[in-house]
Amino acid sequence: MPEPAPRPVVVFVGLRKNPLEHRPALEAAHRCGFSVALLAGKPPAGLPGALLAEVRAVDPHDTEAFDAAVDAVATAHTVAGVVAWGDAGVEPAARAARRLGLPGIAPAAARLARNKYLMRQALADRPHLIPRFARVRTWRDAVRSLADIGLPAVLKPAAGSGSKGIFLLRDEQELRPAFDELTRLTGADGDGIFRHDRGELILEELLRGSEHSVEGFVHRGEVTVCGITDKTTTEPFRLELAHLHPSALPGAARSAVHALTRETVLALGFDDCAFHLECMYDPGTGARLIEVAARAGGDFIGSHLVGLATGVPFHENVIRVATGQAPRLPDQPPLHAGLRKITAPAAGELVRIDGLDTALGVPGVQHLVLDRSPGTTIRLPPEHFSSSLLGAVIATGETGEAVRGTLEAAAKALRAEIAPPS
C-alpha cells in the first residue's frame, strides 16, 4: 500500500509546562487532522513523537533565529496555522502567522495583549471598561501616580504573566518595598518574561467585587464566549488558588461580563485567536477589565475545565480557529468542573506530600497533579511567586457546590511536609 500523505502541520510556539496540560494540545491537533511542529526555547522531554512532525529548540524572542526556524518549517511542511500556548509566545506567533499569510491576531494587537499599560491606553476612551491607571518607570512616577489614583491600589509589572509581582497597596508605606521588589523582578537580571518591557510597571485603582475569567475566541470578527470561570485568589499577592467553571454569577452579571468581553476584544483588534480575559464584577460598578491574553487560558482551564464542563474540548477549537475554521459550540447542558491548588504551608525544603491515595479516592476527583518533587526548595511570595504552589486537584460534579466540596475534601487530605530552610 502507498504511504499516507503527510499531515499538514500547526506550528506550536511553546507549550504549557505540565505534561497533563500540554498533552491535550498535541492530541487536539491530531484529532483535527494535523501534526505539530514545535518551536520552543526548551522543548520538554518525553513528548509523544507520533504527534509531532518536528521539534526545534529556538528562543521565540530571538527574532532572527525564530523567523529562520519558521521559514524552515514552512519549507519542509504544509503549514496550516500557528498557535501560542503561553504569553511569551503571543507576539512571536502573531509575527509568524503574518509572515506565512495564515489566520492569527495582528502583531499590533498582540503587542497590546502583552503590555497592560498599552492595553489600557488603547481603551482610554472607554473608561467604563478599565480601572484608573498610570505608567510607572521611576520612583518619582510611583509617588505621583499613587497621589493621583489614591488608596487602595495595585502595583504590578506592565508585562506580567502568571500573577507574578502583584502588590496590593493599602497604605503609603507599602509603596517603597513594592516598587523596589518589582524593579528587581523586572530589571535586567530579573525574570525573562519581562525582557521587552524591563522596568515598566503599572499602578491602578484596586477593583472590587468577585474575580472571573472569560474563555473564548474571535473568528473573522465574531466573538464567541465559551464560558465564564469563577476564581479564588490569595491575599495579598493575588495568586490564583481555585477555579470553577461555569460561573455561578446570576444572569444579569453574566450578561455584563459578556458585554465587557465583546467590547474589549474588538476594541483591541483581536481576531482569529483564542482569548483569556480576566475581570472583576461588582453589582454597583459592573464588570471591569483586569487584562486579556491572546491565547487559551492556562492553569488547566483550557486543557480540562471547559471541556469537562461542556463536553467540547477547548483546545480543539483553538486549533480550528488557528486554521481558519469557526469554533464548535457545545450542544449539551453544562456540568461543572473545578480546580484547587495545593499550597505549601511554609518556606523550606519539600520532604513529601502525604494523603495522595485519600485525595484521589474522593468522589468526583478527576486528576491530581504534582508540580514539585521532594528536595525542591520552596520560597514564598514576594521572594518567589510560584514555587509555593505544589500542584492541583481537578474535579467534576453536577453542581458548583458539589465540585467545591470535592475540592475542599481532597485538599484537606493532602499534607505537605516542609523541612525548615538550612
From TrEMBL:
This is ATP-grasp domain-containing protein. Pfam families: ATP-grasp_4, ATPgrasp_N, LAL_C2. SUPFAM superfamilies: Glutathione synthetase ATP-binding domain-like. PANTHER family: ATP-GRASP ENZYME FSQD, FUMIPYRROLE BIOSYNTHESIS PROTEIN C. The keyword Nucleotide-binding applies. It comes from the Bacteria. Keywords: ATP-binding, Ligase, Nucleotide-binding. InterPro entries: ATP-dep_AA_Ligase, ATP-grasp, BL00235/CARNS1_N, LAL_C2. Residues 120-323 form the ATP-grasp domain.
